[in-house]
Amino acid sequence: MSGRVVALDIGGTFIKSGVFENGKLGAVMKTPTGAGSLEEIKRSVSEAVEYHLVGGAEGIAASSAGDFDPYRGVCTFATDNLKGYSGFALKAWLEEKYGVRASALNDGHAAMLGEAKSRALKEAAVMLTLGTGVGGAYFDGGKVVFGEDFRYGRFGHLVMRDNGKLCGCGQCGCIESYISATALTKLCAAAGTAPEKVFYEERRESRAVVNEWLDALCEAMETVFRAQEYDLMIFGGGVCASAERWLPLLGAKTERRAEVSKLGNSAGLTGAYLWWCENG
Q1: Is 9 helix (H, G, I), strand (E, B) or coil?
Q2: Who contacts 133 (Cβ-Cβ below 8 Å, separation ≥6)?
Q3: What per-residue confidence (pLDDT) applies to 2?
Q4: At what angle do helices 90-98 and 38-52 cross, to 10 degrees?
Q5: Are 161 and 150 in contact (CB under 8 A)?
Q6: What distance lies between CA 77 and its chain's CA centroid?
Q7: 32 closest CA partner among 98, 82, 80, 104
Q8: How far, in Å, CA of 15 to CA of 9, rounded?
Q9: For residues 209 and 128, what is the distance between their CA atoms, to the nearest angstrom?
Q10: Using one digit for the tens of pLDDT, what is the confidence trace for 178-223?
Q11: Using CA atoms, how far apart are residues 66 and 18, in angstroms rounded to an integer?
């Protein structure tokens, strides 16, 4: 384990950040991403990093939405959830700006890495992180599978419904368009409620939202299984804070094993830190 490392988890809406000291994560803060342009994203990342650098650090470990080459720390593709981000060399930019060793990898891969370590995972598992978009990763044979182009596990952009909703990636019917926190928020808004309340309400409209979202979750699990068989599905993201309400309902709709992240919202930060320790 390394002394003091700033960790970032860059999403389309917020950047979560914290400091690992001797392997332990301290308090986590959230900074709006400002994802309207690359310059806005860079300003937000700088704000998060510099808040934590007051105490000094020997490195910066980043996980981020978007497809990433984890060895070069370069975003190879991002949807308009992060405008202008495609091609951004995040690792090199952090190292040049702050003069410390940095690393950067996809947020789904990072979350799976952190989760696998925390569970001492042995079985084949898929992780889907439900945020502004849907991050994904696959774990098998004791490691996260990146694939030759580092895009393996991009399950959020598997087509679930032909000629379905338009996704930010340009395809129609992607998993992301139906089960992300963004998709749930839209369903809730149409029913006059909100994601933080909908699982606790008894109104008919709220129950209909929950049922529609859970049906989409089941459909997504089957779509992923057809593309990549797995023993365990792990869900991450803020919606998992309400898992005690919706996970039993999901279990009644599918025979697939499904659990929520043991690390919660710190899975991406933890995986980013572990990757930095090995490759930063």
Answers
A1: strand
A2: 12, 65, 79, 81, 156, 168, 176, 180, 182
A3: 61
A4: 50
A5: no
A6: 15
A7: 82
A8: 6
A9: 20
A10: 999 999 999 999 999 999 999 999 999 999 999 999 999 999 999 9
A11: 21
Q: Among 188, 200, 169, which residue's Cα sits nearest to residue 78?
A: 169
Identify the residue whose tokens are 């990146």. 146
Kindly report the number of other CB atoms within 10 A of residue 120's CB atom. 6
DSSP 8-state assignment for residue 33: -
pLDDT digits (tens, 9 = 90+) for 95-104: 999 999 999 9
The tokens of 263 are what?
């690390």
Token pair listed for 267:
């899975």
**What's the Cα-to-Cα distance from 227 to each of 38, 62, 106, 152, 221, rounded to whole Å?**
33, 28, 20, 11, 10
The token duo for 115 is 């989760």
Burial bucket for residue 56 (CB in 10 Å: 0-12, 13-18, 19+): exposed
pTM, rounded to two decimals: 0.90
**Euclidean distance between CA atoms 53 and 49, whole angstroms:** 6
